[in-house]
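Reply to dn_fold:

You asked what the input looked like. This is it:
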Amino acid sequence: MADKTVKLTTAQAIIRWLANQYIEIDGTEWRLCGGGFGIFGHGNVTCLGEALYDHRDELPLYRGQNEQSMGFAAAAYSKQWLRQRFMFCTASAGPGTLNLVTASALAHANRLPMLMLCGDTFLTRLPDPVLQQMENFNDPTFGANDAFKPITRYWDRITHPAQIIQSLPAAIATMIDPADCGPAFLGLPQDVQGWTYDYPEVFFEKKVHRIRRQPPDANEIADATALLKSAKRPMIIAGGGVQYSRAVAELTRFAEDHQIPVVETIAGRANMLNDHPLNIGPIGVTGSDSANAIAEQADVILAVGTRLQDFTTGSWTAFAKDARFISINAARHDAGKHMSLPVVGDAKLSLAALDTALSDHKGSSDWVATAQDERKKWDAYVADNVSYGDNRPNSYAQAIGVVNAMCDTRDRVVAAAGGLPAEVTANWRTLDIGTVDVEFGFSCMGYEIAGAWGARIAQSEREPQQDTISFCGDGSYLMLNSDIYSSVLTQKKMILLVLDNGGFAVINKLQNNTGNESFNNLIADAPTVPEAFGVDFEAHAASQGAAAETVANPAELAEAFKRAKASDKTYVIVMKVDPYEGWTTEGHTWWEVGTPHVTDNDKVRAAHVDWESSRDKQRKGV
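and this is what came back:
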């Protein structure tokens, strides 16, 4: 008996197949794809749009205002779901699709799954050149969509309807693989979207996926065990991969069993509660004096679920040059960085195996006491840093402190790019596990609002009673704010704090710290601005349907935050902060930036010499 088939267009088959993919999470089945974000154009509306309409209940489609922000929202959705579920983004051929490039790079850098279903030019080439086609004069197969190849983990252009039988499972397998996780891109030529094929019905049967857990190699565990037993001053760096592996309990148990201090990366914030006695604070350029102090002394460092980027390592100056590294990571590429002893495997399984292998071995109580003393000093600094009154200028830290004191323990905090990631990382005191999203993997301005919208969509599926709270600078707000409107339209409430410092103040700070004069970062210092004036952010947010108010100081912010919590729709609170005063000045390691080696400016020359004076601390390695 011949296999049963069903005649469908390529677009219909893609959406029907997606709607039948599920994932098991803690014994419960969820649809693997939570839906999508879409802006229609001629490249995707007639065929893919037709297919999506027929599955609008199974795969809800959120109408975005900008393709880049749609991608940010999809990335934040995936992050909230700990990479266990994803959203798709669909855009028309040409500029709509190219607007997703930045979002794809963000998802790639952060190892986040996101599926892009994007229009492409006609495969037959009969109507060429078509509207929005980017012609390549010597290679007609090479188009705008090829720009996604270096910033996706899986890329394909569907040139025949039958290809999706292979391509769709391959894309999904990539997106949910802990080692290869990242964005997938399918280019869909406009004619191919509507072409039909007799698909086997078995292709559309319900499939339940499970995230693979790769056990570590026994020899690598043995090597890591021997090195840890030799350590006099061991330390753990906990990265974002700890949460993605859902290994928080194993990390905590391991640290407690063997009495090893733990520091957190930016992506790993909220791996441990603020008051856990072994939580010594965030590490690196935007870290804490406490974490950086013990990092300088540690002789063996166990890095778990981190890619060890420069803000974590202080451009590799944060550690003793002879310190040894062990890296537990599902991705071989990350496990072997900087001459680490690699343990390639799932964090949960690897920590459990290492815990067993170490048996009753414990670190030095004196070393733990030293780390805890450093943490007490840092806690005192943060308490003072977030306080207000005594005519102190308004600051990011004060706003963070107000929210930290008043929010619910399970509320989610979002920040990205500019000065706020550093201020949130340094000053936020974790109230519950997995409640902080500081996007600094790609340091992408504009993520703050769009990401909060995507996180809120995910949050509403499991914790609808909680709030998503976004800290946003005025620069990022002006760059990408239209998802305030999206959140109001879709009734996905978020609380947005717009902290206005008159421009790109953190880059102005870097400019000044390297001896340069303020130039083109603050609005007041822009050379082509005859007369600077501020934006009425309250009125602008209100025009998008949000409730909004402006406050003069942190005390008023506290009262406004109560109203925001009580509101049933998106609430925007605006407060001016000082662009020069009130920054967190402690807790920073050295960071490598390019400074002029030759200049006629004495201040710039002196700053270059001072900056380079720390380079001798830098570890050499691959």
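The chain has 24 helices and 23 strands.
Hope that clears it up.
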